[in-house]
Each structure stands twice: as C-alpha cells, then as structure tokens.
Specification:
14 strands, Aminopeptidase, about 375 residues, alpha+beta, single chain, two-stranded antiparallel ribbon, 6-stranded mixed β-sheet
C-alpha cells in the first residue's frame, strides 16, 4: 500500500520537472527566434543608411510574393577596394538564384561580368557596371533582361561580408582542384592568392581567394564555375543542424556588410524553401557556345550571339534536375512487345525511351511559372 502511495506521490514531481523543461525549451526557442528575426530585419537598411541611398528614387516597389510563384534573386558581390567613402563598389560577381517553391528546386546562374549588354539610359556596357550606374534596381533590370527572367530581389555583400560568413560558420571543407597563386599588390597585398591543391578546411580568407582566382587559361569562365561550386557547398553546410542553431550569430556577423530588399517574412519563406529544397542545377551565362569575344574601345568584352536563344537555354536549364536519377531500362515485362528478328522494331524501342525522357523535360519546364 505504501509503495503504491509513493509512486502516486512521484507523479506530480515528474510532471513538474517536465513542465519546467518544456517552459525552458519554449523560452530558448522564442529567444532564438526573436534574435534571428531581428538580425534578418537589420539587412533592410533605412534609406539614409543605405549604401544605395543615391538611387532610392529609382527603386521600384517589390511585388508581393505569395510563396507559390518562381522567385529570382540577384546576388551581388562588391569589390570596394580603393574606393573613397560614399563611392559605390562595382559588382565583382553576379549570380542569380532561381527558386521554384512548387518543386522546391533551386537553380544557380553565374553571369560573366564582362558581358556587353544594353543598360537602360546608358547605352551599352559591361553588365557589372549597371550597379554603379543605377544601383541595384538597374542591376536587377539589366541582368533580368539578359536572362529573360523577372528578378524581384537582390542581396549585396562585399569581400569582408563573405569572409565573415565563412569564418562564423567555422570554415568550409572543400576540394581545391589545383594550386593557385597570384600576387595582388593593391591594399598591402592583403588579397594575395596562395592555395594548395587538395581537400581542406577553408577559412574566410582562403575561401575568398578561391572564388576570386581567375589567372588561368579560362580566366573568368572557370572562376564563375568555382563560385557556383563553392556556393553550393556553403548552402549545404548552412543547413546543418549546428549552423541553424548558430544562425543568429552568423547573421549578426555579416549584417554590416550585407544589404537587400527582401522583407523578413519573405526571407523566412525562402529559408523554409532552402531547408526543404535542393540545388537542382547551375550554369554559366552566357554559355560558351552562345558567346563571342569582341574588342570595344580597345578592351575585351563578351557579346551574346542571340538573346532569344539564350532565353530558351535558361528555360531548358530550369527544367532540369541534376539530382534526378539517370534514366534506366524499363523493368522486365514493362517494355513494348518487339517482333523477333526485327532490327527496325528494336531500334524503335530505343528511340521510344528517348521520347519518354523528352516528355519529362517538358513536364519540368511547366514548373517555371512566373518567369518571362
């Protein structure tokens, strides 16, 4: 009888302990959530504090995003070295991240910065000059017209912001494909490049060296590929449990260097998409077969052979998922009957498999709603 009474007396204490743990857990989550929310909110700078304050009048209202249509974000990497206070950095790198919330697929496009394009109100010029000529609004418009996509958002950061991100994450493990060396005499040689080949932990400085290196045979062509590959590795690492826990610290470390026009609510939607989605593909724009090198005013630039062909190429890339399993032979008994000894029919069966693959691509293309 007493043993039973003791067991009954223990239950209130057990329930009390569980209740305290739950309350503490809720408090920690609320504290973490408020910290992350406040850090995200700081990325949208007031007009007077914005590095783009001279272009505020040119800014266009951001369309309301319902979270269902494709959204495209221009990622601008600024090189502010050697600039006086108040001067706007040129965009050293331009990438577009295209999110499809229906399929939960993300595609990355790295734009060659020397691509020679029309820039509204300024004639023709290198695409990376659009930022200095008209701020992020003109940069989004110019890149969007090149790709045939409506770009709704931008995210800007400079060298130091990129380094802070990698360092706060604790570095990024990455396979450097070859030795990379370059002496940069500007800024007291703080941006020299000296990387050894092999799998290694890159800190912020080493990661920046990797994405900046272009002193090889393919120059900026290979550099944009390296940028996409490292960005994919960083995106994957950011989704690790430990970095999600550290998210407030990560966001606060890069806040001084980052500016964007994405609202907190949209950032949270995109964050959920990033956690549940995957990077389905990446590409250089324009691709090698659609560009030609020209000389304008004694300087080398990159021209697009045919803009309509480029737009079609972008849609084809958006329809592909590089992570999808490769097409295999149909299971035994599922293929169409083939007459014995008929090579023509056997050949037809093979082309039938190819036709199925084309159908899959067509289906994938339909997920590109919201692009123009």
């Amino acid at each position: 009888m007493r043993a039973t009474q003791k067991k009954k007396n223990k239950w209130p204490w057990i329930l009390a302990v569980i209740s305290i743990i739950v309350v503490i857990a809720i408090g920690l989550v609320a504290y973490w959530w408020s910290g992350v929310y406040n850090a995200l909110d700081n990325f949208s700078k007031p007009d007077e504090d914005s590095r783009f304050k001279d272009y505020v009048e040119q800014a266009v209202p951001v369309p309301t995003w319902e979270g269902k249509e494709r959204v495209n974000i221009l990622l601008l990497g600024g090189d502010a070295r050697g600039l006086d206070e108040g001067q706007l950095a040129r965009s050293d790198s331009l990438l577009v991240a295209s999110f499809d919330p229906v399929t939960k697929k993300v595609h990355l496009f790295s734009v060659l910065r020397d691509t020679y394009v029309p820039i509204e109100g300024h004639g023709r010029g290198r695409i990376n000059s659009a930022l200095t000529l008209g701020g992020p609004t003109l940069a989004m418009q110019t890149v969007g017209e090149l790709l045939g996509l409506e770009i709704q958002y931008y995210v800007y950061t400079d060298f130091e912001g990129f380094k802070a991100l990698i360092d706060t994450m604790g570095g990024i493990y990455f396979d450097v494909e070859k030795n990379m060396r370059y002496t940069d005499n500007a800024d007291g040689n703080q941006y020299d490049i000296n990387l050894k080949k092999g799998y290694q932990l890159l800190d912020g400085d080493k990661a920046l060296q990797y994405v900046r290196f272009r002193h090889d045979a393919l120059s900026d062509y290979s550099r944009t590929e390296r940028q996409r590959n490292l960005l994919k590795a960083v995106a994957k690492e950011m989704m690790s449990t430990w970095n999600i826990v550290k998210m407030e610290k990560i966001l606060n470390s890069i806040e001084p260097y980052v500016e964007m026009n994405i609202s907190v609510s949209d950032m949270l939607k995109l964050g959920q998409l990033g956690v549940s989605g995957s990077i389905a593909g990446s590409s250089q724009v324009p691709p090698m077969e659609m560009l030609r090198e020209e000389t304008i005013g004694g300087a080398s630039v990159i021209a697009v052979r045919d803009t309509d062909d480029l737009h079609s190429y972008i849609q084809e890339v958006l329809a592909v998922d590089e992570n999808a399993p490769a097409a295999t032979d149909m299971p035994k008994g599922m293929d169409e009957p083939v007459e014995s000894g008929s090579p023509d029919n056997a050949s037809g069966s093979s082309s039938g498999g190819s036709s199925t693959g084309a159908g899959n691509n067509s289906s994938g293309s339909s997920s590109g709603n919201g692009v123009r």
